[in-house]
Structures are given as structure tokens and as C-alpha cells.
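Morning!

As promised:
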Amino acid sequence: MAIHPRARDFPQSEFLGPIPDESEITAGTRIVPGRSYGFFTDTTRCIGCKACESACKQWNALPADNMALTGDSYDNTGALSASTWRHVSFIEMIGSGDARATEMAPYQSNWLMMSDVCKHCHNAPCLEACPTGALFRTEFDTVVVQQDICNGCGYCVPACPFGVVDLSAVDGKAHKCTLCYDRLKGGLEPACAKACPTDSIQFGEIGDLQESAHRRVEELHARGVSSAYLYGAPGTPGATGDLGHLNAFFLLTQRPEVYNLPPAPTRASRRTAPSLLSGLATVAGLAAAAMVLLRGRA
Amino acid sequence: MGSNMAENHPIAFRHVLQAKDHGATIVHADPRFTRTSAMADIYAPVRAGSDIAFLGGVIRYILENDLWFRDYALNYTNIATIIEAGFKDAEADGLFSGWNDKTRSYKVDTWQYEGEEIPSSLSEHLPSTTPERREHAKRLSEAPPPSDLTLQHPNCVYQIMKRHYARYTPEMVERVTGCPRDVFVKVCEAWAKNSGRERTGVVCYAVGWTHHSTGVQMIRAAAIIQSLLGNVGRPGGGIISLRGHSTIQGSTDVPTLYDMLPSYLPQPNAHMPHATLADYLKAETTDTGWWHNLPKYMVSLLKAWYGEAATEANQYGYEWVPKIVGDHSMLPMTVAMRDGLIRGMYVLGQNPVIGGSNADMVQRALAKLEWLVVRDFMESDTASFWRNGRLVQKGELRSEDIGTEIFLLPSSLAGEKPGTYTNTHRLVQWHDKVVEAPGDSRSESWFVYHLARRLKAMHAESTQARDAPIQAITLDYHLEGEYDDPSADDILKEMNGWTVADRKQVADYKALKDDGSTACGVWTYSGVYPSEDHNASRSRVPDAPDGPGTHLGWAFAWPSNRRTLCNRASADPDGKPWSERKKLVWWDAGARKWIGRDVPDFSETTPPDYQPDYTKKPKGMEALDGRSPFIMIADGKAAVFAPSGLKDGPLPTHYEPVDSPVHNPLYAQQDNPVVKKWLRPDNRYHEIGDPRFPHVMTTYRVTEHQSGGGSTRGVPILAELQPEQFCEIPTELAAELDIGNTDWIVVSTLRGEVESKALVTDRLRPFEIDGKRVYQIGMPYHFGWQGFAVGDVANALTAVVADPNSSMHENKAFTCALRKGRVQPGDE
């Protein structure tokens, strides 16, 4: 991001207090309630430093939860969970034997790195599944769980097509990324995006992010990376099954499954009618079969 | 090359990605395919320790194909300079002229310019020539360096270099480094293309180059390439030394190094003609170039240290400065401790039982001390070695047998104290104290100040001569806060310097004098606090979005707030920018001075066509012509050939690491002829190609931990990201040894045995070295027994062996054995 003119308003190392609307300087966006905010995670810029993971845990006071070597490349986190809201996955595609890579197309690393996060879906299935109203849509168009209302029923967990929401073993309640709701209220960019040194994670207004993401795809195509595409922007993979679009969306260069993303996620509620009907049909079938059997015995 | 920038300097790597956005080609040459390789356009695999063979190959490629930037190199380097007729290149034997087999050292008489004596630009300026030659040779103030601009003279540097690097063909590069020749040639093409008026290229290196017995020469090889391509002193050029810890550049400038006084002044040495201040100044002051100013900096330093006690009559207290008597760097110090020659040690900001070479020897050395003071923010491995260290756990040391008295003092962290950071870009940036440190934690300056104050009080009444230095030392700082912290502002003011009579801050180092009228603690930093209420390091004014992009209002870059060193070279010999695109500073003929987007690094008003008048025996900057951008070097020209200052040759030459799987394919000389070895039963080296130790090991760091791990392994949310020790093994080797991913493995050398889990990966690949299959494996060196992320100590494998110039160890390249399983008790 270019230097924001307001950066020149703070000419000393020491500040007298918090900088008002700091996100304008760090992310180029002033945070205003009533508008939609999200993340654009550009995997072609990710260097796998995990600054997002640790910044997230530090700001949100989340505990360490996995103290063992997984052997899965440099990924010792494994998955998103109630206490891990950013997860960087590492996918080695160096090639083997003499076919190991030495020359790579621009931004085609052969060692894919991707920082996964809650998608803050436009039509959020977790929110639809929540019976208590603990999950709600904020004034920034993000999806947040209120643990003081959550009763730990866990309906949101299978409702999420991305496997993001998780119940905590400590308090039994649902936890996930809040898109730093508290920081947004204070005019601050979310912790992960601010910590990202390469702008792989960009925070901003959804419209702006989608526009710059499309530009980035075009730019990559022009540089010969024809495999680059968006996941979760309107009309792209990931924004399927009535989800509308994802407020946290991605730029990918391999099939979604390679990154452990569903190729065509859907809302759980869309499956309600078919599953109800098939359930009723099963019951009817069983009842019919029972009647036949019982009649036979009689 | 020699750096894993994305992993170890992720924030600086932001700029690499921005360059990539603008179309830059990124090349990464490394033994392992890392997170940096993952962002590169070309990845060149090279065996650890073979870098000079690779870089020598690049030099040959540039010279043979005439791809060097002629207008730049002919004017700004010593490529046309004629070397003594007696100079003999390192041919088949691998040794240069001047070699003495008995002393295993060089006399550099024949490396000098024909008939002239050339002082080194390093902090040891006096060249190691014979006294006879020194007497007869001319000085640079008497005549210009002899040169042949047609480059035909057989002993001009160009011809010598061409002959020296002729053997570094792409085929030879492949044979020595294992890098496929077509990949190597692509790297050469990409590098050479980014040269000339319109384009530049930059080299980033880190401890992947310094941690070798030939580390200094690796960096020199890069300097030669960059000088030939015209990539020094220009925007987008240079050699970036990525520093490994926060403010380690600062600790080099205000040195924690045993052989330097602040700002690269040589430490007085008992074996040099340094007996008195006059002797020292005579030996170390160069006739020509900026170092001619050395007496001003030395006398001002003594005035800052000893204040009123420093007078002309007592040589400004020069004799109170301790003289070194040999190599007092960390490696020989460890050996001396082991042998019971050192009684006590302070450890500040270090974790030597993890980071030190031959880590078991380090533990045994600490166990010999009477006392050990460790300052850290948690109980580090070094502080706890006596109760749960590697050797205690293995039963090789017993706690009750260790007599060392250990003092663990809690230290504060960066946000708990004010001060400055100086990092890679020489930018001195102030940071403020934001919270009080918890409990008894104190800052380093508090500790050092109050220790000195108490020592001073203890010795106040002494009449012994040996106590005179502590009696004379000034400790003149305001005390602040509840715990009497010495004012960080006052310390920075002292580094900046002042005039003694009125104690007014000096504007910069040009105001310093050699007559005792000025005091200055760190001359290169002079200008950082130019007046009583102006701390330039606090400034945070970036350039506006429209440029110029040098950000002169952001903190203070030493020297003189200059962002690019040697930037006279950004203009052509006539003083005009090489191109509009690569404009930085230039000569304004109307105003008759150098101007531009950066602070010019040259005599402000010396025109490009200036020629020294040798009839007047010009000194200092007057002896350099208007086309000499490298003002810290005695002749003002980049030394592609180094006549002085290096102990192992004027041109980088490939020698194998001390532990090597192969005979040196290039020369009969196997390893660096001047390498420092400490061969002893507890520090053995491997024979060439020892079949017991067939694999090449490299140690390294990962993003998730800091060096010895003291500051990260105890932080849960960092510890979980890389939770335990691992060893990266190429798939082919793992298959040969039946090692599965996350299986336990044992790595061993004659120094020690280490166990860890295996991380089997295609990111490491087998090498074909001199017709032999050689496997490169690797292991991070962060781990130890303290904190949450624990694991065996990789440095238990490494040896005490050092580069002759810098005394830096060789932990980046050695040989080892690898087997599946775990360490059994009594294995070694």
C-alpha cells in the first residue's frame, strides 16, 4: 500500500494517544458502521510467516492449542478451531526426482501457502442455524458469536460448509474469527491484516477489495499465470449454493480442494427441504414395509 | 544468496515483493528450497559451503562475455590498477604469492599496487607487508595508483581476475556446487542483465554467508560482481547485509566486538605498533581518503570516555584503553573457559549453550567458571544448564559437581525502556518506553551504569595504577524514574558528541577535532542529536506519496543521514546521473556542488573533474580525484582486488569447508589455508570424505523462532508454530535409510550426537558433487530444554573453527552421519 498522506500528521516516534481512524493510514480504509468489510487473502503473496496466526492469538487472547510437530510441511497448526482463527496451510508441490522445480512462473511458488479464516458469508449458514441469536451480523456486515448468549448447542458447527466454527472444550461455546469486531469499533484494521508483511491479507470495504482482487487476477493472467482465480467473490467458485458471496475471499492458483476448501459450498438450510422430504419418504417407506410385514404375520 | 530472507526477514521481504510487482526477477540460491525460494523466479540449488565457486563462476561469465559496466568499473573500481610484478595467482596449488608455510600466513608485499603501499579500509589499517617494503614503497599521497586503462598490462587487475576465474566454468560450478549448469547460466544472465545506466540489481545476504570459514570472501565475491556491474552506490543496487537480530547493526557500530572501538576504530593491539597514542595514530591513520580523519575521532572518543581526566599530557587517557593480545572472540574464549583460563562471564542478550558452536563444549566451559551472570527475561537455557541442561540430562555432568555460581537477573524488554534500534539500513530509530517492566526487571543501561557506578565507588580511594581507568571513566548521565535509570537521551547525546568548553552538541562529525576540544562517543552517529532538544532518531516524517522516496525525514541514517552509501557512484564520471530512471545525486555545475535526492556521500564541493596536485603531497579527501566514490578506501576506488586487509587472499578463491565430503575440485589446497582451527579431543574435525560422515549438514533459523530461542520458545503462541526440533531430509535419502516422516532420527559428528524427528521433503534434493552423490540435510538451531518448544541442541554437532578475518564459526556447512532411531545412553 502506498504511503497515506495522513501518515505525515504523526511526525514523532511517540504518540499522545490512539490515532483516530488508524485504519485509514494502515489499510487505506476508514471504518464506518453500515458498510461491508472483509478480507481479501491473496495466496500468491503469502510467505507463510504466520504473523497473522500469532497476531490473531495475541489480540484475541487465544491460547496455544497444539504443541506437537505434525510433519505436514511447516504447518503445525492443522486446522481452524475455537482457539485458532487464522490458519496458514503449506502445500508442497516442488515435484520429485529430477522434476523438482528450479524455474517458476511469477508468484507460482510450488510451495503453496494460504492463510485460511472465517469467510463471513453474505448468507451465513451458521447464523441461520443458531437458535439463540448468539450469532449475529454486525454493523460492519461481519458475523460474530456472542458467548454470553451462546448455549453451546453446536448447530452452527455442521452448518458451516467450511468447517470454521468450533465449540471450545473450555467453555463449551462456539468461537470463531470476529474480524476483530472490537478493533473495527475503535477504527483499527484487524490484527492479522495489519501484521501481514506482504499484503497477502488485505482488509477493506468489500466493493473495493473485490475490485482490486479482479485487477490482481488480470495482472497475473497478463504475466502468464493463467491459473489465478478468485474464490468467494460474486459469481466465482466458493460463492455458490446461495451463499451470495464471501466477505473473506481468496485468490487461488490451484483447485479449491488443494487448499482444503470445498469446491461448491452450500447453505445447510438449502439441504433442509430435500433432507426433510427424504426423511419423510424413509419413514413412509419403513411404515409401508412394516405394514406389509405385520399384515403378513397377521 | 546466503540468506533466507522471507523466513528470517519477513518484514523487509515486503520490499522484495514490491520489487517483484514492478517486474524484478528474484533469484534464490540456497541448499534448501525455503519460503524464500517459494517466492523466487529462479531457484538455484547449491551445496552448503560452495558459494565462492558459484560466485566465481558468475565473475568469469561476466568477464568472458564482456558484460560488465565498463564506464562505471573503469572509473570507480581498481580494475585497471597494476599490481606488483611479483604477484602470483592461486593456481593449481590454491595459494597466492607471499605464503609462509611455517607461520601459515601471508605477507602481502606482492599484493600491493606496483611500487605503492595501500592501507586497508578495515579497522586494521596497517597492511601486513614487510617493514623493508613499507619503507621503500610510495604512498598514495605521492602518486596516483599505477594503472592501464586499456587493460592490456598482464598484471593489471582485469587480467589477473580473468586468469584467476578462468577455471570457474559452468561445468566446474556444477561439479563443485551441484547446481545444474543451465540453471547457473540463467542466474548469470539475469544478474548481468540488471546492470548499466538504466538498470541495477541488488544482493541480499545474511549469516548464510558469514557462518563459513570463507565467509568474508563470499561477501567479497558478491562485492566484486556488484562493482563490475555498476550496482553499488545507486538506487536499487548494493549488497544488503540482512542483520539477524534487532539492533545488531547498532551493536556493531557501538561495538560489542573485541577488536574494534566504537565506529570501526581499531582496538589498540599489543602486537602492533600501538604503544602510545602517537604510535597508534601514526600506524592507523591513512594518508588518503576519509580515514585520514581518524585522529579526530579517536581523540574525541577518549574525551567522551575520560572527560576532564583526558589531557594532552596523558595522551587523553589512551593507555587506559586495554590492548588486545590475540583473538578474544567468542570461539577462543569458549576454549579458554573450558581450560579454566577465564573465571567469570556476563551474558547479556545471548544464549550460548544453544547458539554457541560445539554446544557441549560450551556447557563444559560454563561449568568451569567461578561465576556467571545471565540477564534475560526468563530463565534461559544458559542460566539453567547446571540443573537440566543437555549434559546433565545425559548424565555427563552432575549438578553437584558444577561449582559455577550463577546470577540470574531479570531484564526488561524493548517496550519497557527507551532507546534506539539500528538495523540493516543503518537507520537509527528511537523507541519510547510504553510500560514499566514487571518486578525487578531492569534495562541493560541500568545494569551497566549501576555496575560501573559501584565499581567506581569501590575503587575511588585506590592508588593502584590498574584502577586509574575506572576512576577516570565518566558516568555523566541524568537519572530518571523510580529506579534511577540513566537517561537514554543523555547516552545518545554523548554518542553524538559535543564541544568540551561549552558542552554544546556538535552538528556532525565534521566538527570533531583532534586537540581535545571535542568529545564524541560514536563518530558515525554524530548528527543524530545535533542540538540540545533535537533527537533526529525520533523523527517519523515519510516522504509524500509522490516521492522522492528516500524518506530523509524518517529517523536518522548514519552517517550524516545518508540513505545510500558511496552515492557519488549514482552519477557518471562527469557528475551527471547515469539515467533519469536511476537518478540519485549529481553535480550542479551552476551552484558548484553535489545535490540530489539523498545526502551526497562525497566532498560537497569537489567537482567531478578534480585532480589531486601530487606536487603538494595531498592528504585525506584532497588526494582523491573527483571520480572516487569509495571515500573510505585509500584510493577511493572499489577494491575488486584487495591489496590489504584480508588474511586469506586478494581475490575470493573456493576452498572447501573444514568438514567436507569431497576433495577440493578446483585446487590442491583443500580448505582455507589461514583458517583458524582448535583441534583437540573435544573438538575434532572430519577427514575429507570420511565415509562415516557422508552427508552435508546446514543449520538455520525458521520464522517462528529467534536465534537461541530464548525469546520465543517460552511464548506459547510462538512455540506451537514450530513446537520441536526437526531435521529436514530429502525423500531419496529417507528412502535409502528407511526413514519415514516424523520418525526419530539421530545425527552425529565427532563433536556430538543429536536426536530429532524427521521432516522428509522434496524441498531438499540430492546433489551430484564431483561425480559423487551427496545428500544435503538441515536442522534449525533454535531448540533447547527451556520453554515450551523443546528439542535437542543442533550446535552439539558443530565445531569450533573460524574464518581467519572475522573469527566467525562455520555452522552453516559441515559433514555428519544420519541414522534412524534415538540416542542410546553411552552412545558417544
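Residues 676-820 of chain B form a domain with the Barwin-like endoglucanases fold (CATH 2.40.40.20).

Hope this helps with the figure draft.
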